[in-house]
Write a structure and sequence with these properties.
CATH architecture of the largest domain: 2-Layer Sandwich
Structural class: alpha/beta
Order of helices and strands: EHEHEHEHEHEHHHHEEHHEE
Number of domains: 2
Shape: globular
Oligomer: single chain
CATH topology of the largest domain: Heat Shock Protein 90
Length: 321
């Protein structure tokens, strides 16, 4: 009799949630449980840091305003220990300055209170998508010396995670963990905006309403088969020059574009930070220094520069719990 060995069961990712308000903490925790993820909780930054070192969570969701150690200090400590850990910060409504500070400290995403539970789910899933992408990268072999690609991409947001693994693998391995995470977030936002807002014509208001009513996936599916949008494609040009330390991607959708000048020229603190108009630009502009839109707004070029002398290093695997 031939016995086929069974694959080891995959453990759910561990999420650490931190908030000094018991009601909010329970809300965050219950959402993580419903998503089928593992959970640990802390009521302040100091306890959270201790749990972080003991449990090595995959994702951290933390409030900013807390006693003993606030969320910004916690983010800094986490990034000093494990720079590749996605940190989602929760700020008060209208507190754009804190959101900017958190992103620059290494946070990968943010939420504003009060938030809808579906917003929290989408935000955690975005971070998990990046996390799973990095784990897949660890199985790949780096051997690219020069990369020039042209891609035409279907209007399928679910493929973005795997696509990022492929197109960013050569450059990601040459970056610091923090830069790598920020580049992934920026390219992910630009591609999602090109698909959702550009090719599928979903307005910020439509997206926000659909997320609040937990039917955003259904809205995507309807637009994908709509005769007005189904033949549209995202076009992407990629150039990576390791010798000179330059990665550049140009993304063009077939939508009508948008009035980008006001958002790109505005102060970061004045950009809308809630899900909706300006969210993607807020993240990209905060994380990247060279982003240029064309006149119509349906084409964007992101240029990322790094030290070409940085030695190649394989990304660290995420240890099991």
């Amino acid at each position: 009799m031939i016995v086929t060995p069974q694959q080891p069961e995959k453990c759910p990712e561990l999420v650490l949630v931190v908030d000094d308000d018991p009601t909010t903490l329970e809300c965050l925790a219950e959402t993580v449980r419903v998503m089928g993820l593992s959970l640990c909780v802390a009521e302040d930054g100091e306890k959270a840091l201790s749990l972080f070192e003991q449990k090595r969570p995959d994702v951290v969701v933390t409030d900013v305003r807390m006693p003993r150690m606030d969320g910004l200090a916690l983010t800094n400590r986490i990034k000093a220990r494990r720079p590749d850990t996605p940190v989602i910060v929760v700020t008060g409504y209208g507190d754009e300055e804190t959101a900017v500070a958190a992103l620059r400290a290494g946070a990968s995403d943010y939420l504003h209170k009060p938030f809808h539970l579906t917003e929290l789910k989408h935000t955690i899933n975005r971070s998990l998508s990046l996390l799973r992408s990095r784990m897949a990268e660890d199985l790949a072999v780096l051997g690219v010396e020069r990369l020039d690609w042209y891609l035409e991409i279907k209007n399928a947001p679910e493929i973005i995670s795997g696509l990022l693994t492929v197109i960013l693998r050569p450059v990601s391995a040459r970056l610091t963990e923090s830069d790598r995470l920020h580049l992934q977030v920026a390219v992910q936002e630009l591609l999602l905006n090109a698909i959702e807002h550009g090719n599928l014509g979903i307005s910020a208001e439509e997206k926000n309403d659909a997320i609040m009513n937990d039917c955003f996936d259904h809205l995507i599916e309807k637009r994908q088969v709509d005769h007005r949008f189904r033949r549209r494609r995202v076009k992407m040009w990629i150039m990576h020059d390791p010798e000179n330390g330059v990665f550049q991607c140009r993304i063009c959708d077939e939508g009508e574009g948008f009035d980008w000048q006001g958002l790109m020229n505005a102060s970061l603190l004045n950009l809308p930070a809630l899900a909706g108009s300006g969210r993607g630009i807020f993240l990209v502009k905060t994380l990247m220094s060279e982003v240029q839109y064309n006149g119509q707004g349906n084409e964007v070029t992101l240029t990322f520069r790094y030290s070409p002398k940085m030695a190649w290093h394989p990304p660290a695997m995420i240890s099991p719990h």
